[in-house]
Amino acid sequence: MVDGPEHVKKLTLPQLQQLADEIRQDLITVLARNGGHVGPNLGVVELTLALHRVFNTPRDKFVWDVSHQCYVHKLLTGRKNRFPAIRQTGGLNGFALRTESEHDCYGAGHAGTALSAALGMAAARDKRGTDENIICIFGDAALTNGISYEALNNLGHTTKKFIGILNDNEWSIAKNVGAISNYLNKLITNPHYNKLSRDFQNFLRRLPKGELALKLAHKAEEGFKGAITGVGLRQTGSLVDADGRGGYGSPIIFEEMGLRYLGPINGHDLPLLISTLEFAKTCDHPIVIHILTQKGKGFEAAIKFPEKFHGTGPYDMRTGDLLPAKAGAPPNYQDVMGQALVKLCQKDKTLVGITAAMPSGTGLKHLEKAMPDRYYDVGIAEEHAVIFAAGMATMGFHPVCAIYSTFLQRAYDCLHHDICLQDLPVIFCMDRAGLSANDGPTHHGLFDIAYLRCLPNVIAMAPKDEDELVDMMFTATHQNHPTFIRYPRGAAEGVPIKDQPQLLEIGKAEVIQNFSNNGRRKVALFGLGPLNTLARKAAEQLAAEGFDCAVINPRFTKPLDAGTHEFFGKAADVVVTLEDHALMGGYGSAVLELFSEKNVTTPVVRIGWPDQFIEHATTQDELRRKYGLTVENTVAKVKAQFGEATAKVTRLIEVA
Ligand SMILES: Cc1ncc(C[n+]2csc(CCOP(=O)(O)OP(=O)(O)O)c2C)c(N)n1
Known about the structure:
Elements: H1 5-10, H2 13-34, H3 38-43, H4 45-54, E1 61-64, H5 71-76, H6 114-128, E2 134-139, H7 146-158, E3 163-168, H8 179-189, H9 198-206, H10 210-230, H11 239-243, H12 252-256, E4 260-266, H13 270-282, E5 287-292, H14 300-304, H15 333-347, E6 351-355, H16 359-362, H17 365-370, E7 375-377, H18 382-394, E8 398-404, H19 405-408, H20 412-420, E9 427-431, H21 448-453, E10 459-461, H22 466-477, E11 483-486, E12 510-513, E13 521-527, H23 531-544, E14 547-553, E15 556-558, H24 562-571, E16 574-582, H25 587-598, E17 604-609, H26 620-627, H27 631-655
Parallel strand pairs: 1-2, 2-3, 3-5, 4-5, 6-7, 6-8, 8-9, 9-11, 10-11, 13-14, 13-16, 16-17
Antiparallel strand pairs: 10-15, 12-14
Helix pairs in contact: 4-13, 6-7, 9-10, 15-22, 18-20, 23-27, 24-25
The protein binds thiamine diphosphate.
Thiamine diphosphate binds at residues 40, 43, 65-66, 68-69, 110-111, 139-142, 167, 169, 171-173, 295, 310, 356-357, 380, 382, 407, 410.
């Protein structure tokens, strides 16, 4: 068993190859149970082995873009025993985490950060005069992201020692898009296939048995050429097809950025990878090695369905079938959103859908399929997506940007400067607003109410169920201002969706249950979005314990329904706000601000997420239990408040 990276260095080549097979088996078996990033990790088994063969972490640094593909690295760096619980409560995180291991030098989860971070490390190394190697591993889709180019622009004049590995498998989560994807395709279909460069050949010659190594490398190269044309790692095509104008790609982009380009090479050829990395280690200028890999390699289902197996829930490891949803299970929010958008687009010609590389995750694939001419995938480029939407909105369109709450953080300045300041009617469907339990802190969407409610012109809503989500989308299409709808990951509530959505009054809450005025102590529960269910359950429990409860669905976090909040705030003995969001700056904070303005002095219990990054876990419910987003905790806190409130009232009476 390989326990740490030092063992990888002791294995013979056949043993390494056997280890690659075992790792693949491990990945397929564990992820069938836990879910996770199957395809990306199966694609980098040989690369990761070669990296650990040639370099020495933690001294040398591996910086993974997104880092969803670092499971193999985890397996090789002393975490094999904990691997069976990856993405589970108390188990390994599914991304690189600095607190998890000294071998994880940089944490990530959002795309496009690796080149900048690695360049920063290289600059720091140069400054302190040490000589560790910094290796940045980034996918072809990282090159759809603006930050990557900002780093490349600085690279050549910042350091002379930098190793970039472009892991090109043609896929983002869905098929990679845009000019850069075509460019990479041209590079590798160039018939003047980048022969091993002269200095690399000389390097190989100098190795023990160097001539043999050189021959093998040439052979591998030839074999690989056959592989890409024969097996179809790449679709080939005629030379004219290469760029549509009769030209071929050349690595000029990288060269002009000051990076020596090497490749493309077969990313599954261990000996070639090892020699290439050994060579890169000797280079006294920045280098990028372009490797071609196959997403899902070694698992038929993952090769056949790369998008599904990019990141998946549990599956049957024999067939690759996802475990069936329980009969009668409610639909997922993202599907409700995607299907509703298709219907809205059919009636309103100004509507278009925009995704930043997440057609399946956001449900926009429904629009892509039904109305491809109304659908834009702009790559992993949230800032561009938002400003692109702003541009369309100035021309009379009503763009719908479907972006996860956590990824929209990337585009905050664009929301401020391009959307809100210009008061443009762009609709934001913010998926994964709330927890993304197995993914953890990089993916939880717990901050959007806070980051939006301070911006003027914003209309921000949160539906309590899928029917209200459709009402909110419909309502948003009638607004001339930026609108934001936040809803959680996964299964909705299972309520029927009306045929004709309802136009909601902006800034108006829904009173679900009023006080009965039965003389009992009054509790007003304001349950936002999915936590309205929790509010209703807590109200039932409190009623059973002798309280008179009102339940309100706030619907809007901005504009807040001042009248309804003030009315219930003044009528109640205790107010409770419940939100699937950070308490700091969230909906409950907004209520407190309003109460302060309106002189409402009723005590407020706020239920939500504390001021810390929330870890990953097997289920959302486990985290909710741990952090007190439960009926029991709500009831207990209300009762505790009543103790205080009663005491206060008693004191007042005494004074009187
Ligand atoms: C800012 C941001 N937007 C979207 C995502 C969702 N996402 C995770 S991985 C991925 C595609 C990565 O593709 P690539 O870098 O080529 O790696 P591969 O999985 O193909 O190996 C996307 C879009 C993200 N992690 N971060």
